[in-house]
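Lecture notes, continued. The same structure-token format from the folding unit now serves as the input rather than the output. Read the line below as a description of shape only.
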């Protein structure tokens, strides 16, 4: 049955930019209260504060926390606060949109550094494994109930290769595997877990990839819509998929790319 999202709560991990920010705005317009976790310097914190006030202007509650979402201490400190804020309502939607990892090649060339084990472990821990840890702790704390939705942001890079993307590609592949396992284990509780595979999107994390302008131009030419995916496209998908109590759509990698991979 299709239900209203008004008055529910959403936790966005990576709330201050890119897809996480767009999702926060879209859900706030639908009457969803927003819990945002981001990890920014002073400039980023100012932008996050502006976003928070814009969401509150929609008549919802919005609380942003500047903390490392990949840290166990952050989860330990924030979960009691989330429980206090959401009360008996709990969290309806969880969005994992953490994009922080190394773009170094595996094999060092021309005197440049190659990927270290520390950098590999950091990339996978932030971009993949943290999904598991947050879901575990939220469920154990009783903040996820029947009808809840968990979304992880993935990309075609999880199954493709390109220069500088090796560690991130590995993280995306691991993330999709985690989604399947979490979907299996949370199905008896009526909780759905899916990965959303956006097309090439001009976000701050995308712009850090070397040669990103050429990649964007190539993707634009491939896409049947003749444009890139926008963060708002992904935000609308989250809003649409979350308007049901059913957990029957679960364990999937759902393309939100305008048909980019078709060609």
């Amino acid at each position: 049955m299709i239900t209203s999202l008004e008055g529910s709560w959403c936790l966005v991990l990576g709330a201050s930019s890119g897809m996480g920010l767009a999702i926060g705005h879209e859900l706030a317009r639908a009457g969803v209260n927003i819990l945002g976790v981001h990890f920014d310097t002073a400039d980023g914190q100012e932008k996050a504060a502006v976003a928070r006030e814009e969401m509150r202007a929609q008549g919802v509650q919005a609380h942003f926390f500047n903390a490392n979402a990949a840290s166990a201490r952050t989860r330990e400190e924030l979960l009691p606060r989330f429980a206090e804020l959401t009360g008996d309502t709990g969290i309806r939607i969880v969005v994992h949109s953490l994009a922080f990892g190394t773009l170094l090649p595996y094999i060092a060339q021309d005197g440049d550094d190659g990927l270290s084990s520390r950098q590999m472990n950091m990339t996978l821990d932030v971009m993949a494994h943290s999904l598991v840890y947050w879901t575990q702790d939220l469920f154990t704390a009783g903040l996820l109930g029947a009808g809840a939705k968990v979304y992880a942001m993935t990309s075609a890079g999880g199954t493709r290769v390109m220069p500088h993307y090796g560690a991130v590609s590995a993280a995306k592949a691991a993330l999709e595997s985690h989604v399947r396992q979490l979907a299996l284990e949370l199905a008896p509780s009526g909780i759905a877990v899916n990965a959303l595979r956006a097309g090439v999107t001009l976000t701050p994390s995308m712009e850090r990839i070397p040669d990103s302008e050429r990649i964007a131009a190539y993707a634009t030419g491939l896409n049947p819509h003749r444009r890139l995916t926008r963060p708002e496209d992904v935000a609308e998908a989250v809003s649409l998929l979350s308007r049901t109590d059913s957990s029957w759509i679960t364990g999937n990698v759902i393309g939100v790319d305008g048909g980019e991979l078709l060609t």
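Point for the exam: The chain has a mean pLDDT of 94.
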